[in-house]
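Structure tokens please, single chain.
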Amino acid sequence: MKNRIIKYMPVMLTAALVLCACGSNVFGNGEGEVLMQLDAGKGLVTEENSGAEKAQGAEAGSSDKEQSAAAEKTADTVAENAGGEALAKDTQIYVYICGAVKNAGVYDVPQGSRLYEIVELAGGFTEDADETCLNLARQAQDGEQIVIRTKEEQAALLQQEQTAQGAVSGGLVNINTATATELSTISGIGGTRAQAIIDYREKNGSFKTIEDIKKVDGIKDGLFSKIKDKITV
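Here you go.
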């Protein structure tokens, strides 16, 4: 009998250890010792490994949340931008196009429309239109008037500009070629005297010297002394 007990002693000790393990799921010898846990179907794993796996799982979950939040933010930004673009396209402005186009009038067009698009809405250019008189690539502004000149009108405008440039030489106003507006830029020469100068030269011909301007009604020695350094012939 004693021999049998000794023979089965290892088996009994093993069974006792298993029963104790089932009751507590852990066994060890105190604090500081790595505790062993029974993992059903997977054998024994350390609490340290289990903690690492939990940390990795938590990091993975946090990363997924961050990626999800970033994706939602990006989607919101894209939607907001798309909405802004749609709003800009839907915003209408009003422009008045006239002159050398087939159908002059007021048109409501999307904000950001180019001049060439508005010309197309107005039926296109007439045959005598000067298509280079404006920058057709620029954007139209709300409430503006777009004037398409004819070739004749554009040529006359250029001639006026050249005349104006010739009327002012070295900062001096040429009293033989200046317009009433240009003459009015001279201090002391208002609209009335400017027209009197033009009337005089149309009746009597060009001024020979700047002193001849004193022959014009309303221009005496006192005024001449003020303007003599600003005029030329």
